[in-house]
Design brief:
- This protein has about 325 residues and is an alpha/beta fold.
- The chain has one domain: TIM Barrel (Alpha-Beta Barrel), CATH 3.20.20.100.
- Helices cover about 35% and strands about 15% of the residues.
- It has eleven helices and eleven strands.
- Strands 3-4-5-8-9-10-11 form a seven-stranded parallel beta sheet, covered by helices on one side.
- β3, α2 and β4 form a beta-alpha-beta unit.
- α2 packs across α3, α4 packs parallel to α5 and α8 crosses α9.
- The protein starts with a helix and ends in a 13-residue tail after the last helix.
Length: about 325
């Protein structure tokens, strides 16, 4: 009787799903996915980028997160070449920004409804898909990064209207949100939200109430900066003494402790750690097999959460 349960843990390639089974937009996926942003580092070695993506799939990852503005389409094009239909990989993208290769930052906001629609069309073209299973609307309500101003200050209802229209047209399968406040999420719930991507980790837990709302509503929680970042106000999880001590005790890396804590913290958490290094990729996947005993988990849970008030880029 155990065989069917084991089969349910397998990806189309026959590998056990990295981190076990999770749910995303009505589909079973690996709880450890792959955030493809850092593949831009390999833009001078397209073959290496494709090899990384193939290795992801071999390791049991069937959930890849991307965006057209990653490498000005390079990352999407690498995914198009690497991922085969028989792999049954769920590719998730996002809109709300666009490439700005000549600007002070590599991207600029694209929040207006017509820009959101254009972003979906660009993603479809570079990914070679007729439908993107899930598209996240990247807003600027919270978290690090750019803040909307001028004509980029767009009402949520106007943005959701175009996302719903794109879903009705079959160009996207489901709608997600990124960098949003609790109030914005509550207002968006009637639209049918499948995913929330916010900055969140062991040490930056301001959005705990939002995570719990997502859990109650059957919404996937996909944290970015799962190990912190270099932004002021967001400490690095791997520098925390308690995390280092736990890693030493369990003979794993501090990064694996930080990722394992997230998986243990709530069942709707899905991870999309990114890297351009094959060894780092394998270490991230192995975090799904790290078992945190009750004493270690209690010690980590007791760490004081740091404020996530991060100074945005202007």
């Amino acid at each position: 009787m155990a065989a069917p349960a084991r089969i349910s843990q397998l990806t189309a390639s026959g590998a056990l799903r990295a981190g076990g089974n999770g749910r995303l937009a009505g589909r079973t996926v690996s709880r450890i996915g792959f955030g493809a942003m850092q593949l831009e580092r390999l833009r001078t070695d397209r073959r290496a980028a494709i090899t990384m993506l193939r290795r992801c799939i071999e390791l049991g990852t069937d959930h890849i997160d991307t965006a057209q503005f990653y490498g000005h389409g390079f990352v999407n094009e690498a995914i198009r070449e690497a991922v085969r239909p028989e792999d049954d990989v769920m590719v998730v993208s996002k809109v709300g920004a666009e490439p700005d290769p000549d600007g002070p930052l590599p991207l600029r906001l694209a929040q207006r409804p017509e820009q959101l629609r254009a972003g979906v069309e660009d993603n479809l073209a570079t990914l070679g898909l007729e439908q993107i299973p899930l598209v996240n609307l990247r807003r600027t309500d919270t978290g690090p990064g750019l803040r909307a101003a001028g004509d980029q200050l767009v009402a949520l209802d106007d943005q959701l209207a175009v996302m719903i229209a794109l879903r009705d047209e079959g160009k996207i399968g489901a709608i997600g949100l990124s960098s949003v406040s609790l109030d914005v999420l509550r207002r968006a719930l009637p639209a049918g939200i499948a995913c929330v991507q916010n900055a969140y980790n062991l040490l930056t837990r301001d959005d705990e109430d939002m995570l719990r709302l997502c859990l109650a509503e059957g919404i996937a929680w996909v944290p970015y900066f799962p190990l912190g970042s270099a932004f002021d106000g967001m400490p690095k999880v791997t520098d925390e003494p308690a995390v280092i001590a736990a890693a030493r005790e369990l003979n794993v890396t501090p990064a694996q402790i930080g990722l394992a804590w997230l998986l243990r913290h709530a069942p709707n958490v899905l991870l999309i750690p990114g890297t351009a290094d094959p060894e780092h990729l394998e270490a991230n996947v192995r975090a799904g097999a790290v078992t945190l005993d009750e004493a270690t988990l209690s010690a980590l849970d007791a760490l004081p959460a740091r404020s996530g008030d991060i100074e945005p880029n202007q």
